[in-house]
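Methods: example folding runs. The two proteins below were folded one after another, and each record is reproduced exactly as written to the output file, sequence line first and structure-token line second.
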Amino acid sequence: MPTNTLKLTSPPPIPATHRFCTAPMLDWTDRHCRYFFRRMTRKALLYTEMVTTGALLHGDRERFLAFHPEEKPLALQLGGSDPEALARCVVMAESAGYDEVNLNVGCPSDRVQNGRFGACLMAEPKRVAECVAAMRERCQIPVTVKTRIGIDTQDDDAFLDRFVSTVAESGCDTFIIHARKAWLNGLSPKENRDIPPLRHDRVLRLKQRFGDLRVVINGGIDTLDQAEALLADLDGVMLGRAAYQNAYILADVDQRLFGAAWPVISRAEVIEAMLPYLAKELAHGTRLSTLIKPLFSLYHGQPGGRRFRRWLSEHGHRRDAGLDVLQEAARLTETTYGLTD
């Protein structure tokens, strides 16, 4: 396989910016996925899966807060609605080295609603403001809010304006807006990502009304062409499903959206750059099937991509599966391209 031309083993510190981010995705953006994303982009701001205050206060906080230094810049997303609990958790996050803490006010699942956090908090803007104020008082890192354009029948501009203005009074200056409303009853979380109409226009209008705030858009962004177009009027874009359905889209982010001078890394180089990390994780007992989950989409849409995924599926689940499985999948795929002998 080719020599890695993008040296990411010890990347220089990159200041966190919201110009381009990857979304917090439950059961997806774990530390292995984030390390993989970072092989392709130095500049993107990465987000963890949502972690609840209860998990940090009463669970294995070291496991929930763990990350590799090379994942930075990195933001922790928290779920909760108790100001004091959130304040305690943001102290942990800052101490652990996170660059930002984000409050989840967008998840519509029943479990989240039962815990009185997520999208249902849009109906309680004063509570959200109290949470943000308590968090900001206890830390120096930014505290941001990720939310929707509305909930149920409360989905007009006036409702969104009241929410944003109330929370902004607590000192929050960055809002990540999923450009769909959430139905709190009747739709599953998956359906809430697809069925409510996508309304980028609502987010664009919000930015016009709140020019002093940083507004980042999320939802329905599938290409960097779309991202570039939206950045003409907004402060940032957040990529969700496209980042795991077609991970290699991240390889062009630094050059196209940040003007980086370093070369775009190839898919084969991405795999080579992952090998030392995977070897260490395997030595610590992590199963290969867990480690390579985010890599399945690396050759999405490319000749040989199906062969790559099939090889990983058929051989990666074995208990004794090692690096040779990934290396052989890449060799077979790269041979299909005619890039290797």
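Second run, written to the same file directly after the first:
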Amino acid sequence: DLAIAFKGRPNTIFIGEKTYGLTTANSTFQINGHLLAVASSFTADRTGKVYDGAILPDIEITEGDNFENLLQDTKILEAISWFTKD
């Protein structure tokens, strides 16, 4: 999961909703000419924390999506506020 690559990084926050929670890696095996993909591991961030479920945001916002006008999207507005705070 790309989000995990940024976890634990200085001056980095997550704004929005928790992820779906499927942060596994797959291994493939060939059996009788067929491929079988099996979820075989979890992902860890730079601090060593293993994620076996959803990644939670630092600031949770679950409403207010506006894909037609991003400047009216509550998550975008919160991110702008975070960037411009003193």
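Comment on the second run: The beta strands are 15-16, 24-31, 34-44, 50-51, 59-60.
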